[in-house]
Amino acid sequence: GENVEQHPSTLSVQEGDSAVIKCTYSDSASNYFPWYKQELGKRPQLIIDIRSNVGEKKDQRIAVTLNKTAKHFSLHITETQPEDSAVYFCAASIRAAGNKLTFGGGTRVLVKP
Amino acid sequence: EPEVTQTPSHQVTQMGQEVILRCVPISNHLYFYWYRQILGQKVEFLVSFYNNEISEKSEIFDDQFSVERPDGSNFTLKIRSTKLEDSAMYFCASTGSLSNQPQHFGDGTRLSIL
């Protein structure tokens, strides 16, 4: 089955700097890659997603890139703010095949003011 | 914005007892999921449900687990005889379409087995 690896496990950045989180997946059939942000004790909230027919997607300060050949995708947060502090999870799934999400191990991001 | 709602928010149960976790998916959604997250670990898939039957289940979802959609709005997860290792946060999720809609998660139920 699918396996998703996520790095780093923790990331500390200065406010205003950029943060980059990387994930790799194993199943070449995976075609949908969402990113979730989870604050302490709360639900995972979708922040951005990308489909395999797209190489890059951007939403304000957040961008995701996908390299299908290498089977990796990355989350980029620019101009980080203290409220970006949270745990971020990448995930992979096969659309139109039940769509179960396989999550990475998570990255704890701390933005220092 | 419509939300997935889960009850209770926290459930404390003695080992060996049965628990039922409840979820109300977003009203026009058709696909339902349960995930669990052991403290400090990643979110793990348990089961997906569509058209009143299980679509897929993970190795975690053994005979102690069952899911049901008893009416048009609720989606439940039952653990028949709880074990200490069942202690986790359980998230329900739903989506309206497999092709172009994301999964929306509820706030979760924290299950503590004593």
Describe this entry's structure for a reader:
The complex is a heterodimer of chains A (113) and B (114). With 113 residues, chain A is mainly beta. In chain A, 0% of the residues lie in helices and 54% in strands. In chain A, the strands form two sheets. In chain A, strands 2, 4, 5, 9, 10 and 11 form a six-stranded mixed beta sheet that branches. In chain A, strands 1-3-8-7-6 form a five-stranded antiparallel beta sheet, with no helix packed on it. In chain A, a hairpin with a 4-residue loop joins strand 7 (62-67) and strand 8. The N and C termini of chain A lie far apart (41 Å). Helix content of chain B is 0%, strand content 50%. Chain B is mainly β. In chain B, strand 4 and strand 5 form a beta hairpin. In chain B, strands 2, 4, 5, 6, 9, 10 and 11 form a seven-stranded mixed beta sheet that branches. A four-stranded antiparallel beta sheet of chain B has the order 1-3-8-7, with no helix packed on it. The mean pLDDT of chain B is 92. Chain B is built from no helices and eleven strands. The chains are: A mainly beta (113), B mainly beta (114). Chains A and B meet through strand 5 and strand 10 of A and strand 4, strand 5 and strand 10 of B.
Count the beta strands of chain A.
11
Can you give the helix content of chain B as a percent range? under 10%
The span between the termini of chain A is 41 Å
Largest sheet of chain B: 7 strands, mixed
Q: Class by helix and strand content of chain B?
A: mainly beta
Average pLDDT of chain A, to the nearest integer?
A: 93
Number of strands of chain B: 11
β-strand percent of chain B reads: over 45%
Count of helical segments of chain B?
A: 0
Form type of chain A: globular
In angstroms, what is the radius of gyration of chain A?
A: 13 Å
Distance between the amino and carboxyl termini of chain B: 37 Å
Quaternary structure: heterodimer
Task: Calculate the mean pLDDT score of chain B and round it.
Answer: 92
* Uncertain segments of chain B: none
Beta-strand proportion of chain A: over 45%
Q: H/E order of the elements of chain B?
A: EEEEEEEEEEE
Q: Which pair of protein chains has the largest interface, and what are the residue counts?
A: A-B, 22 and 24 residues
Order of helices and strands of chain A: EEEEEEEEEEE
